[in-house]
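pasting for the record
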Amino acid sequence: MAVHELSGSVDVWWFPTFFCQSRFGEYQSSGTNSCTLISLLVANRVAKSSECGFAVTNSELAKHAVDIFGAAINEGNAVYKRSTIANTRTSQNFNIPDAIALLAAQPDLGFFIGEWFYTHLYANPNDSLYVTKASRTLADIIEATIDVYKNKCKAANARFLFTALIADNRTVIFVFELPANVVAVFDSHQHGLGAGAIIAKSSITNVVDLIRWYLKMLFTLFNSKPKVIELSFLASEADTLPKFKRRFYTC
């Protein structure tokens, strides 16, 4: 269903326009602002899955990755619709703590993902090296956090770490499959007139290339150079990880 593109060390799958949060499934009409819920539900489903890997080959996307994505879009849109009806909440995005609380309160989801570290980056959109500097700083933060997660939080054998990246009112989820040295980003939004959602992956070693590709894509398709980029690191509650202080970076 998705069209594969190789961009340097990054594999990208562009889905058709009907497969995105605003056009896919029974609750598509609720999908305008449900990206944070969808991103967290992707993490929840990945954490529960017995399947490994996101690609069958470098160019072929694994079926379970598409199934997880589609189910998360439906679930996220459904929860958003119920929340809108119950609380007369309209045209608003959820922040991460509110989204976690809402999903944890849904008895049918079995949601067990928690936030354990949050930070955000201030970037200068007028800097000619915006993409280079921002992607390098974000990659440095992620690499340092993975090191802490694996070596100082009793999570050396953990399969996954998740990072919600929030920029320009869009939330996407980075899924780090640690034993396989693979990271994939799930972006449920529509991308221009020609593409729906996106999955892109690289090795964790090349995470800077994946972030650089994502920031370039934001500018190319949405003319967006976010001044503030938020990172929320998430993990299964079964890992019982400590919560760290919030930190802030500038590049």
